[in-house]
Amino acid sequence: MARKISMLAPEWWDYTTLDDELLHDAAKLAPDDMLSLTREGFKVVFYDTLEDFYLAEALEYITTWKHATADQPAGICGPIGPTEQLPLVARLINELELDLANAHFWGMDEWYMNGKEVPPSHPLSFAKADMELCFNRIRDGLKMPESNIHFPKADTTEYIESWEGVRCVVMQGGQGDIKHWAFNDPVKREGKFIEAPPSPEEYGRLTTRVVDLHPVTVMQNARTSGGGVVTGVPTQAITVGPVQTWQAEKVSIWQAGTHDNPFGMRLTTLMIGKQIADSSVPMSLLSGHPNVQFNFYRPGIGTCEAEMH
Questions:
Q1: What are the residues whose beta carbons fall under 8 Å from the beta carbon of 248, sequence distance 6 or more?
Q2: Which CATH number is 119's domain given?
Q3: Angle in degrees, 0-180, between the axes of helices 262-273 and 20-27, rounded to the nearest 10
Q4: Is 5 within a domain?
Q5: Which pLDDT tens digit goes with each residue over 185-201?
Q6: Span 72-104, pLDDT tens digits
């Protein structure tokens, strides 16, 4: 049977093209049902306070960088959504006097405009946010060498090569409205993908690259970062690919309920827990990764009950 046309953007693939029964099953999940989807290779964790949630996220940086030695450098790949953990990381580094000489960091993505990555002077620059919220706050003598901080560029060669010979202990991420990690969005419904989206295997072969952003992603970033000015948000980005994601020993997704909604958080939990992989829901492809953890701020999970406001 032919796949449905998206309700959100007919020229694209996305979760609204999935079978209605799966969507209804996701909407019915209670928080305890989400916890019960934990299985080998996939763990669901709840935090009762935002303080505990963001501290735990920050501590993943500390735990990762404590593994780094001259013989075995180690790093973390981190997101710009969420960002609340970043100042906590800097404070912990300074208080613990953790020397980052052998530590590495990979930024997950960056905006792409006019044939190149946006400069740090751009108000939405992810590199700028990482530096201002975290790395510039670390004391001299503890700072990570600039050569160990890797941000994706339009020419992805150097970024891709930086993953070789360095242990990526954790890739952190958030989940967007379109159910992506980083900017691994669903693809356009065109060419050979007119009738069906890429298979999980085909999507999984994608490396760091320039991508077109689903209109929902553009709208979300306007809402969360641009005061709603959609025309100020780039429609393309450079994003870390599934190839690099599978080089990470663990993928840790942090969901406080501010980026995706109650339904979206349930849908991807169900699909990964039940190992239902479909590239119209890119996050579901993580069902094939051997070590994934979903971290939720419990009050942010909400409900899928209809309620007029």
A1: 77, 168, 169, 170, 171
A2: 3.40.50.1360
A3: 110
A4: no
A5: 999 999 999 999 999 99
A6: 999 999 998 899 999 999 999 999 999 999 999
